TrEMBL record:
Species for this entry: Sphaerisporangium corydalis
Pfam family membership, one: Fapy_DNA_glyco
Ranges of residues in domain Formamidopyrimidine-DNA glycosylase catalytic: 2-93
Protein name, entry field: Fpg/Nei family DNA glycosylase
Family statement: Belongs to the FPG family.
Keyword Secreted appears in the UniProt entry: no
Cofactor(s) the record lists: Zn(2+)
KW Zinc (keyword) present: yes
InterPro entries cross-referenced by the UniProt entry: FPG_cat, FPG_N, H2TH_FPG, Ribosomal_uS13-like_H2TH, Znf_DNA_glyclase/AP_lyase, Znf_FPG/IleRS
Catalytic activity line of the entry: Hydrolysis of DNA containing ring-opened 7-methylguanine residues, releasing 2,6-diamino-4-hydroxy-5-(N-methyl)formamidopyrimidine
Length: 292
């Protein structure tokens, strides 16, 4: 799933490649992706992209005051195309293609644009065409952006104060902190040397400060690594920069212990026992049920 660093990098890429371009057409073969009807998606034709923003994991193209907003969900991605002039229409349901945006042709006849694709059978990629980003329910309910100046250790402390939620779940909750998902919550907690099962409200003042530093540093480093990288290469860059997430069974680069995993119904977390849990493995309930 694209998280804050990847969406920020996609926003930067589109600022360089899409801003100033008039939209020729928008095709939506993945009709289930379109969540709004007014303004109609066809109203984007003829408008010019004037800006690109990010709201948590939402990507926002301002098109002369009409906003084309997408959330790529778990299996979605954005693919830039230097020339879509020869691209044929796609029949609904016959392709991972959900949306295709074509821009006006360049002087050389090529028609650049981008496509939103979604892998897998669970279609969760969402597209909104709205007059104001505040019309998107997921944006209205977002918590603070962890890279914003106002996200201070004191602000984080206020969020954590009294919470009985495990810190892993709290970091992933978009209504609490915007933009962090499964992968970077694992990375943040490894950097903070903190168990994913630790109760959020139990952190001391020093613990809050350490967690804040891990959040900001981890995300900023990931954004910086992705800066200037083509959209098609961002997935590879994300994987190469992860220390624990997706690396169960491999060696921890910090201490040399073996990275372990806890599995859930539809996801899994990875952690280092030596760095994060005092050397003790966390209970994997799904594995325990299989062994009974």
């Amino acid at each position: 799933m694209p998280e804050l660093p990847e969406v920020e990098s996609l926003a930067g890429f589109l600022r360089e490649h899409a801003v100033g371009r008039p939209i020729a057409s928008v095709e939506v073969p993945g009709f289930q992706a379109l969540k709004t009807v007014d303004p109609p998606v066809t109203s984007l034709a003829g408008l010019t992209v004037t800006g690109v923003a990010r709201h948590g994991k939402f990507l926002d193209l301002d098109c002369d005051g009409i906003h084309f907003i997408t959330h790529l969900a778990r299996g979605g991605w954005l693919r830039w195309r230097d020339d879509l002039s020869g691209a044929k229409p796609v029949r609904p349901g016959k392709s991972p293609l959900a949306v295709r945006v074509r821009f006006a042709p360049d002087d050389d006849g090529r028609q650049p644009g981008f496509e939103l694709t979604e892998a897998g059978t669970q279609k969760r990629l969402a597209v909104y065409v709205v007059r104001d980003p505040g019309e998107v329910p997921g944006i209205v309910s977002l918590g603070p952006d962890p890279l914003a100046p106002e996200f201070t250790p004191e602000a984080l402390g206020a969020i954590l104060n009294g919470s009985r939620t495990r810190i892993k779940g709290l970091l992933r909750d978009q209504k609490v902190i915007a933009g962090i998902g499964n992968a970077y919550s694992d990375e943040v907690l490894h950097a903070a040397r903190m168990s994913p099962f630790k109760i959020a409200g139990s952190l001391t003042e020093d613990g809050v400060a350490e967690l804040h530093e891990a959040i900001v540093t981890t995300l900023r480093d990931a954004v910086e690594r992705s800066r200037g990288i083509a959209a098609k290469d961002l997935k590879t860059e994300k994987k190469s920069g992860l220390r624990v997430h997706g690396r169960a069974g491999q060696v921890c680069e910090v201490c040399g212990d073996t990275i372990k995993e806890v599995s859930f119904a539809d996801s899994a977390l990875q952690y280092c026992p030596t760095c994060q849990t005092g050397g003790k493995p966390l209970a994997d309930r799904r594995l325990s049920r299989l062994l009974k």
